Structure prediction request, 182 residues.
Amino acid sequence: MTPDEYWGRRLALEQRLHDGPALRIAALTLRLGLLGEKAHDLRPDIADLQDQLHLALQELRVIAGQIYPPLLREEGLGAALRELAAGLPGPVRVDAGDGRFDTAVEGVAFFTVREVLEGLRDATRTVDITVRRDDSGLVLDLANVDTGQVVAVRDRIEWLGGAVEIVGGAALPTLKVRIPCG
Prediction:
């Protein structure tokens, strides 16, 4: 399976979760609300069912977001990385434009960054993420990160024909990722 096929399948699966069960649960929640208006003595039970459906919907959205984040699909890598950074306990600065890359490149880049950020041992150190396009494709710099995950990162990047290198000193290393794309 090619990287484009893999990421296309992930994107399609996320879309199926959103378009199928998630929309069905939302519609059921609304129907229960209307039923509650008709059957006053069942309101507490119906309200409980609505709460349970709402929780199931939230869980589906979390699962879908782990497969392929909706913001990544809708607005691209820059917006998805900014949202990811905002949800982290430590300081993360993201410098990324709104330009788009193909699905596989954006998916690999996003999940690479997420994996590196989740593996940080020092949550007080500011991580700088820079995304840009050059003549060969996407260039991603992750500054002030632990380089222990470089093997997993390298495998994912090389799958797309890219490369990863560690630059800078041991105290403040930078992972430089290059992914070819059109």
Observations:
- The chain has a mean pLDDT of 85.
- The longest helix spans residues 3-38.
